[in-house]
Amino acid sequence: MSADFRLGDPEVYATWYGHKHFAPELQADVAYGLTELNRETIARKRIVSCPGCYPTAALLPLAPIVAAEHIHIDDIIIDAKSGVSGAGRAVKQEMLFAEISEGIHAYGIGEHRHGPEIDQELSAAAGKPVVANFTPHLVPMNRGILSTVYVKLSGGATTSDLRKTLVEQYENEPCVHVVPENVSPSTRHVRGSNQCLIGIFEDRIPGRVILVSVIDNMVKGAAGQAIQNFNLMFGLPETTGLKQLPLFP
Asked: How far from the centroid of its chain's Cα atoms is residue 237's Cα?
């Protein structure tokens, strides 16, 4: 569940976490635990590092279309918004109700630790270095992440091509779903569940597409994904313990 093994390069880890990696010898035994995109590796590795919540919400819509070369990899913008639980339970002044209520703010601008994690997995999907523009925001709700992702089409790809690729990628997945056209997914649609919903929209700017991805940051973005990976590693049905339907209000 920790970030200890999310970054495969110990030097990158040291740069972003402020100290050397304490167990680099274990890196060869680690699988990055984004279940839907790394299932075979997860099932045979000793250690599974569950992704951060922001990377989960960003990578599920982005990785397949990056791998398919549908978009320009040098023009990816991820605008992500999280509920307050995403900032942890430590007592901090800026997390007090009176401080967080009735407002929204960006944080970790240009330096959030989930940025290099997103870059790492998009680079793996592309087969070449990718650096995405990622900015997280904190909104006054308890839980949930909504990522609005802006991309530029490449190689003659269309919005329909992106939809087709994502539908084919996730059509048999129990926890990730592409919503119908012109439907905008909301965090209330996944609250308390291990689901991720993805919407795809043609931008009014020609050649650009907007992706909207929602998860519950404490379930698919944390404990639920850990259970999903545990089930996979031990040969259990993948959705064991994860069939809770979304609850709202």
From this structure: 23
